[in-house]
Structure formats: C-alpha cells, structure tokens
Amino acid sequence: KAGVTQTPRYLIKTRGQQVTLSCSPISGHRSVSWYQQTPGQGLQFLFEYFSETQRNKGNFPGRFSGRQFSNSRSEMNVSTLELGDSALYLCASTRGGGDQNTEAFFGQGTRLTVV
Amino acid sequence: KNQVEQSPQSLIILEGKNCTLQCNYTVSPFSNLRWYKQDTGRGPVSLTIMTFSENTKSNGRYTATLDADTKQSSLHITASQLSDSASYICVALTYNDMRFGAGTRLTVKP
User: Fold this and answer.
1) Among chain A residues, CA nearest to B43
2) pLDDT digit string (tens) for B13-51?
C-alpha cells in the first residue's frame, strides 16, 4: 500500500510570501502530524490533525497553520515567510484513535528554502 | 521540563563493528519511547517502539533497551553495514506530547 506522500518535494520562496504544503496519509490513517526539521533545532512538532480537527499544537507562531480534509489529506500553510522558516517539513500519519503505541509513518518531506 | 538528550552527537565506526547509541529522557508522564532511523534527505523510519513495561526490543540487527527507572534507553547496532550510515533519533512520548532528541549522526566506513 502507498506510503505517506508529501508534495512538493522542494520549494523555493522569497521572504514575505506564503506557502502551502500537502500531505496524503496512508490509506485508513486518520491522524496527520506536521514537523519542522532544521540542523540547529532538530525535529520540532508543529501540530496534529485527527478527523479534520486540530488535536495538538506545538509552540510555533500563528503564521503556521494547517487543516485536514474529510479524506484525511492535510495541508500546512506558512504565511509571511522568514529566512528562518527554511527547513525540511515532514508529515507523519498514524491510525489515530488515541493509541499511543501506534506506529507513525513519515513522508519524504518538503524541503523549503526561503531566500 | 520534558527533554530528550542523545549521545554521542556523532559517531564514526568501521563496517562490521558494533555500536551503542544513548538516550536520556525526562518526559513525564511517560508513555512510550521510539527510535527512528533517518537517511539524509528522507523521512524518519521507525525502528522500535517500547512502552514502560518493555526492557528490550529487537528489529533485525537493531536492539533497543529501556530502563524506565533511570529514564535511559540505548540502541545497539550489531555488525554494522554501510547502509546503517544515518541519523538515529530518540523520541519520548507523553500522553499528549512528543519530544525529539537531536539525534546521533552515525557514519559507517568501509
């Protein structure tokens, strides 16, 4: 079965622009989480969506937002881009349902470069 | 404060040798601990998931241990291969939070 798909793989934007990233989870998975990965900060949790509702949120400014559609696909939006937003953005899908021991499957990530 | 500390930061070993990576965590309440392998430019791949009641779990040449009393975990790689070159990330979960370690960058040389 298909894995987690993130699009686009690479993106270059200029400061001040906004960007939308997409994540299609594994079929049957209802939870999608987003992460930012930078060399200096490592992996940091952005937010998690389950059944179209934001269930958890990390410590990121309001410029970072997301949503989830009825088919569990999720999008993440970053507005007013800053140079520091350059990072690998990863999404992970799980079955959801509150089972803490369920395995999370990551996508390949979207490499965002802000110039 | 919920934290995960990994050591060493980086490690270089020769092909065929064994190595052990360390993870100390302070998350509370603790739910489970995971080890991920991340190849350069790719997403992390799960190696092991352990709850507080599990002491050890293996996945091929990878063996993870967990001591919930001392809040320490280790990942042991046996008979390393060139393909083991990657970052290994320790993740500690509470019931509503995930804390990531900074990772250990492992390089296996021929």
Assistant:
1) A108
2) 999 999 999 999 998 888 899 999 999 888 999 999 999
